[in-house]
């Protein structure tokens, strides 16, 4: 079964064709990052306008790269939540139009569930149940992936996502948007022990995350040193920040896996490209005898192949939509309230 996936939840307009949820036939991404860079972050209206311009050429390219016509597609999967509402609406409206004129099934996909599915594209042996750790610009979540379409959140961020923390700290350090990857590069030159960052303490669910305290501490530290005319070594600060985030993610994920009895862990989302997070989790999984699955760097960030992969499993589970499908800025995972 060949699914056309469409993704437009933030600043990437993407389309891809995936066969049986596992094999990428084409994967086209038109990134707007260079344009948003000049504003220091995504400008929602600009993102919607660019999606509007890019979506048809991107879908055409995905079909051409797969050497297919729309007729040969078996279903149209689209990200309908969560994300920037104006951006999501472009993909949803376009997918609805395509589905209506072609008579193909329309398959709604939750963006976070899509990220998790990126691992299916490169790990043929990965099958639920397993423990997912999904870390990106808008979400940070540990979830049991009980079957391909049933998720149970174990813990999630109470405030900022890890990617948001990376990006805001990166901006204060003077790096361009999106800053996470620049922090990663700087961290590789720096010494994480040069700074002692405050540890966030939380009551309640031990698997929840909170990154806003860390973000505020670092932003304030940078502003204060600038005001008094001093200079901080941003390589060291980046290394300390990355170490802290990687350690927090790793400790909580491993503890959750132990408590819930999982030996397979799958990392995904934009921040899964971070070398510190990858290394820390890999080391901890090795020490505990767990199997760790991670997407290659090209499938960590937003793409439509992951949407088509999850779309395939949604379709098999009978999850389709009609013309009443709407975009939603926020939405819990499937099976949750
Ligand atoms: O999944 P994604 O592309 O979009 C959302 O769904 O949010 O994730 C984007 C996030 C951004 O915050 C970006 O800075 C971060 O992923 N990111 C990284 C790295 N590459 C991307 N953060 C840290 N290190 C990286 N190497
Ligand atoms: Zn994403």
Layout of secondary structure:
Blueprint: E1 2-7, E2 12-19, E3 23-31, H1 33-37, H2 44-65, E4 75-81, H3 85-102, E5 106-110, H4 111-117, E6 130-135, E7 140-147, E8 150-156, H5 162-172, H6 180-189, H7 212-227, H8 234-260, E9 264-268, H9 275-288, E10 291-293, H10 305-316
Parallel strand pairs: 1-4, 4-5, 6-9, 9-10
Antiparallel strand pairs: 1-2, 2-3, 6-7, 7-8
Summarize the structure.
This protein is of the alpha/beta class.
Share in helix:
40-55%
- What CATH architecture label of the largest domain applies? 2-Layer Sandwich
Low-confidence stretches: none
CATH class term of the largest domain: Alpha Beta
Q: What is the count of distinct domains?
A: 2
The count of DSSP E runs of length 2 or more, i.e. the number of strands, is 10
Widest beta sheet: strand line-up: 3-2-1-4-5
Structural category: alpha/beta
For CATH, the homologous superfamily of the largest domain is named as ATPase, nucleotide binding domain
Major sheet characteristics = 5 strands, mixed
The average pLDDT value, as a whole number, equals 97
Strand content: 15-25%
Number of helices: 10
CATH fold name of the largest domain: Nucleotidyltransferase, domain 5
Distance between the termini: 31 Å
**Helix-strand topology string:** EEEHHEHEHEEEHHHHEHEH
Q: What small-molecule ligands were found?
A: 5'-O-[(R)-(carboxyoxy)(hydroxy)phosphoryl]adenosine, zinc ion
Radius of gyration over alpha carbons?
20 Å
What does the overall shape look like? globular
